[in-house]
Design goal:
The protein has 15 helices and twelve strands. The strands form three sheets. The chain has a seven-stranded mixed β-sheet with strand order 2-8-7-6-5-3-4, with helices on both faces. The protein has a three-stranded antiparallel β-sheet with strand order 9-12-11. Strands 1-10 form a two-stranded parallel ribbon. It starts with 12 loop residues before the first strand and ends with a helix. 48% of the residues are buried.
């Protein structure tokens, strides 16, 4: 059971992201006890333990501890794709939307993207996009899939679709990478064993600071050869760390204490969506995990004005589009916080933006 120290009722309800969590008392104690060494020399036993454990959980040969999910994605894909190669991914994927153009800038990799009506992968669409060797078009080298899909609302790609994509990749000789920043959520929400996801991809990255409460870090897994190449790429990117066991210990603690409890976050997200369903901005059946997206297209609110109005009352969300607001439940969001969020957003959505709300929007520009 987690030893998290929960925030009191008078604190801000911060639902901007599951990256805002603070290490629990038990996690801090584990970090203080960490057995450390110089990881560049392969001497940090805690880092090695974390890498081996995550690789084993996902059914792969080896793992690599990295400072961030962005770096984990980039070294994995650069290990898979030659310079000048092409990657396919969703148009709103983190890999192309929030990683500062790293694939092109550092890896010489081009990207093409797809869109779907429901935010989930469509294998027929991807099939039609693949360029094989021998054509004048740039050859497709890999496909990146984000599980869960963040901007569509924490949606979980069903295992049969991922299996069909794996079969396509095998038949065409292209590689698959899973940006599994929130793969833990898919595992808990569906009951799908982690190796069942792991065996479908050549490489995967999983985040320890999204949902699991660690202060920093991701782990990339794959074959021993791919991880060795990724380790070289990590060095090139400046991501090699020394006595990183103090951070790896937080990851090990998170795996021991904070994976199973993700069901609490899912339950709270479902409750939040169900209680706001009457406002017309969210459909509870579209909430698969810990992310609730409010669609404001049928209201008088913009995302910026609604976020500002809620923040003035101590509830924090984030605008992910001009008319879309994201709320994320996590380790530091209590039942009390959720009730406050429901009350405040129901009130704001029921009455529409005031002149003061519009003024806050202008002053925030």
């Amino acid at each position: 059971m987690s030893t998290a120290k929960r925030s009191g009722p008078g604190t801000v309800a911060d639902l901007r992201s599951d990256t805002v969590t603070k290490p629990t008392r038990g996690m801090r104690a584990a970090m203080a006890r960490a057995d450390v060494g110089d990881d560049v020399y392969g001497e940090d036993r805690t880092v090695r333990a974390l890498e081996e454990r995550v690789a084993g959980m996902l059914g792969h040969e080896a793992g690599l501890f990295l400072p961030s999910g962005t770096m984990a994605n980039q070294v994995a894909v650069q290990a898979l794709v030659p310079r000048g190669g092409e990657v396919l991914c969703a148009a709103d994927a983190h890999f192309v939307s929030y990683e500062a153009g790293a694939a092109a800038a550092h890896g010489g990799i081009s990207t093409r993207t797809w869109t779907t009506h429901d935010g989930l992968i469509d294998v027929d669409t991807i099939t039609g996009m693949i360029h094989l060797a021998g054509s004048f078009a740039n050859q497709t080298s890999a496909v990146v899939v984000e599980q869960t899909a963040n901007l569509p609302g924490g949606l979980i790609h069903p295992l049969p679709r991922l299996t069909a994509l794996h079969q396509l990749a095998t038949s065409t000789g292209i590689a698959l990478h899973c940006d599994g920043a929130r793969l833990w959520h898919a595992h808990i929400a569906t009951g799908t064993p982690l190796p069942a996801y792991g065996r479908l991809f050549d490489t995967l990255s999983v985040c320890l600071s999204k949902g699991l409460g660690a202060p920093v870090g991701s782990v990339m897994v794959g074959s021993s050869w791919l991880v060795a190449e990724a380790r070289r790429l990590r060095q090139r990117a400046g991501g090699a760390m020394r006595q990183a066991g103090v951070l790896a210990a937080a990851g090990l603690y998170a795996l021991d204490h904070h994976v199973g409890r993700l069901s609490d976050d899912h339950r709270r997200a479902q409750h939040l969506a169900a209680e706001l369903a009457h406002t017309g901005v969210v459909e509870p059946d579209q909430v698969h995990s810990n992310i609730v997206v409010l669609d404001l297209h049928e209201t008088r609110w913009t995302a910026a004005t609604l976020v500002a109005a809620a923040a003035a009352q101590g509830v924090l969300g984030v605008a992910i589009a001009p008319r879309r607001v994201r709320l994320v439940t996590h380790l530091d969001v209590t039942e009390h916080h959720v009730e406050r969020v429901i009350h405040i957003f129901a009130d704001l959505l029921g009455r529409g933006p005031s002149q003061d709300d519009r003024g806050r929007r202008r002053s925030a520009r």
